[in-house]
Design goal:
The protein folds into two domains: 172 residues, 3-Layer(aba) Sandwich (Beta-lactamase); 148 residues, Beta-lactamase (3-Layer(aba) Sandwich), CATH 3.40.710.10. 35% of the residues lie in helices and 13% in strands. It contains twelve helices and eleven strands.
């Protein structure tokens, strides 16, 4: 364990002891300088040892901002993506189910009218070809032999997303939607002419120097194997659908059915690189040189006008009452943007304090039953604020 802010390290250690998560890591940047980095807990496999700085967490829905929304911002800046044009104009078949009027802005702001979640993986698990990826490990083909299964799974998930009917007219409600970001991922692939995983790496992750942030894409098994062989991954859930503890494989079953890379989930990283990514957005939003285009960043950080929404485009903003960013951060004139991940991850950016806070945990290992992360997140960010004299 390294540190920087003893009170923050103590809060993380206490969270580990109290069972918030068996592994926790945090990195904090203030005005571009890393003021804290620490890692707590242990890895149980392949051999028990303390968690280290380079061990990689499943980022879950941080993928939405670190890959999908950032690619969308780049394309908006280049004029290749019109936020207010119908998605179906560039993603044929998406008009089914009453979605002809849905735009990329709706998808990014979670105001499309699509449902929050659907178990698309179930069709893949039942399919003669795609189902190979859901066999017990002892019966499953070697990973390189799953390319056909993942390709078929991706076809099934894509078809289901295109056919998914709306639950409400676009722009009338805000419901956090994985199907919406799956659709956005498919749209970006149409516009970019390459897989989302490759585009994110080429256009976002490598230019930012984030060499430990990547998808493990089963549609490119040789590259996936080379990465997984030399890395150690923090375990997540004991998955009943795959009959194993997920470790070095995306926890989200819809993403797994597609090979591990999707618009809503699939990235792995460590806390320092997540914070470095957040700093790139902070720089753009403060009008400084950044990979992220300043004009697009300002558009994406603006809260969406959908009634009752706290969402911006891709990002969330702190709610007036209970926010995972706590009671002291993000309350200035410029505000804050952030996002959470189901596995127990979060990234928040305070634009006034010029503060980036990345918190990574595996709170769903071995089970998703505990909800202690809900109380810990705001407490943790209040500890950060106190340690830095903010608020």
């Amino acid at each position: 364990m390294s540190a920087g802010l003893p009170a923050v390290a103590n809060a993380l250690e206490e969270a580990r002891r109290e069972g918030v998560a068996p592994a926790l890591s945090a990195a904090i940047f203030r005005r571009g300088t890393a003021v804290h980095a620490s890692w707590h807990g242990e890895l149980p496999a392949p051999a028990p040892r303390p968690l280290g700085r380079d061990d990689l967490f499943d980022l879950a829905s941080l993928t939405k901002v670190m890959a999908t929304a950032t690619l969308a911002a780049l394309l908006v800046d280049e004029g290749a993506l019109d936020l207010d044009a119908p998605v179906a104009a560039r993603l044929p078949g998406f008009e089914a189910g009453g979605k002809a009027g849905v735009t990329a802005r709706h998808l990014l702001a979670h105001s499309s009218g699509l449902p929050g979640w659907r178990p698309y993986f179930e069709a893949a698990a039942a399919d003669p070809a795609a189902g190979a990826a859901f066999l017990p490990p002892a019966e499953r083909p070697p990973f390189a032999g799953l390319r056909v299964a993942f390709r078929r799974g991706r076809e099934l998930v894509r078809a289901a997303v295109l056919a998914e009917p709306l639950e409400a007219p676009p722009g009338t409600r805000a419901v956090y939607s994985d199907p919406g970001f799956l659709a956005l991922g498919f749209l970006l692939e149409e516009l970019l002419g390459e897989p989302l995983s490759a585009a994110a790496e080429r256009r976002v992750l490598l230019p930012l120097g984030l060499r430990s942030t990547f998808f493990l894409d089963g549609l490119d098994p040789e590259r996936r194997w080379r990465r997984a062989e030399v890395r150690t991954f923090v375990p997540t859930e004991a998955c009943q659908h795959r009959h194993e503890v997920n470790q070095g494989a995306v926890n989200d079953d819809n993403a797994w059915a597609m090979g591990g890379a999707a618009g809503h989930a699939g990235l792995f990283s460590n806390a320092l690189e997540v914070a470095a990514f957040g700093h790139a957005w902070l720089q753009a939003l403060r009008g400084r040189p950044s990979l992220v285009p300043a004009r697009a960043a300002a558009e994406f950080a603006r809260r969406d006008p959908t009634p009752g929404s706290t969402r911006a485009l891709g990002w969330d903003t702190p709610s007036a009452e209970a926010s995972s960013f706590g009671t002291r951060l993000g309350r200035g004139k410029r505000g804050a943007i952030g996002h959470l991940g189901f596995t127990g991850t979060s990234l928040w950016i305070d634009l006034d304090a010029e503060l980036v806070v990345a918190l990574l945990t595996n709170r769903i290992h071995p089970s998703r039953d505990s909800e202690k992360i809900r109380a810990f997140r705001p407490h943790f960010h209040d500890v950060v604020a106190e340690a830095l004299g903010i608020g």
